[in-house]
Amino acid sequence: MKTKIITTRSEKITASRSYNQQDVQNLQPGDEFVSVSGTFRTVLGIKNGQLRSYVQRSNNENIETRSLADADPAAITNITKHPRRYQLGDLKALKPGDTVYFKDGADIKIKAVNGSLLTVAIMDDSIRHDALLSIPDCDPAGIALIKTGPITRPAQEKLLLFDPRNIARFDTEQFIKENFLAGPIRNGYRDGGSDAMLDEHGIIGGATREIILIDTEKDKVLSETIDKGIAICQKARNKDQMINMLNRYVADCFGGDDKDVVDNTGKFDKQFKEKETMLGEFLKARLGVCRHRALLFKLIGDELGLKVTLKRGIYKDTSVFAPDEEKRNNHAWIVVEGERKQLYLVDPMRNRMYDEQDIKLGLAGYYFSWESLSGEKLVSNSMRLSR
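Now predict its structure.
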């Protein structure tokens, strides 16, 4: 697929004349020049005497950095100036796979688009990090070049787009937007974390860790774990005991109360960063934190006929003995209906189970939004079976 460079009308200094070193020194980000060999260069930036350019040759394209002093004016056949060529409309037209080169040296790869928000991978001074950018906050004058590119997706993700089970996309989207899921989790459901976004193609972008994929047909480890959990919990005398048994079973599947489970899970999941990963991978390793445990509880609880809601928010440790760095964290938990329609907040990560009175007495700090941390606890929201 041939690369397309987005350009606008430009002012041509000259089509044919001899250039000198001063012309080279006057080059600015966004300018373009052609050499006698037919190589086309777009200036991306000039810093500390180094000329950084996007180079197009007949057989390849690449980013090149070299000393400005090494540029040979005699080899230049044409220079074209492009002052402030990009506009806000060019930013609004960006698609996943496009790359934006800024004059300050930052390169941005578009991962997902959601209205006026861009999920991007930023390369700045060789440091890569993901971020969310608002299009209205971006200055088009700071752009040296926009390069469109083909959308690259993992093969598995392409299949999901055309899979009849893609109805799970709507469950994925609900959890991203609403931070709760009361309905059944269907095959094809994906969880990319609180930073993830879903573009118009159903592609998750902005994930800062693995993208958990639920598929009980392909994930045999998950399927067997669910069946075993059902067999164990069906022996319960009532719903309350069933919830307790399920909470314990889920915790054990992911390493139980091992004090090192969080650190070990963090080390383990680095290999899956930004990749679709079956929940069974974590079950095989017996490693998993709140997001993995809450998902498994939800999957088994639904099969047992319990009314289960998956929730995501913030946990603030109310213990005066908790270190400051442990007092507030993103967290996932379960709200489930027990005997006599009693609602319980279940935390498989901590193997705890609270009723509404426990929450009201301040025995646990579960918040459904960051805003609620500064004021009254949203007890009703953290304990509801819906939002």
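The first strand starts at residue 4 and ends at 6.
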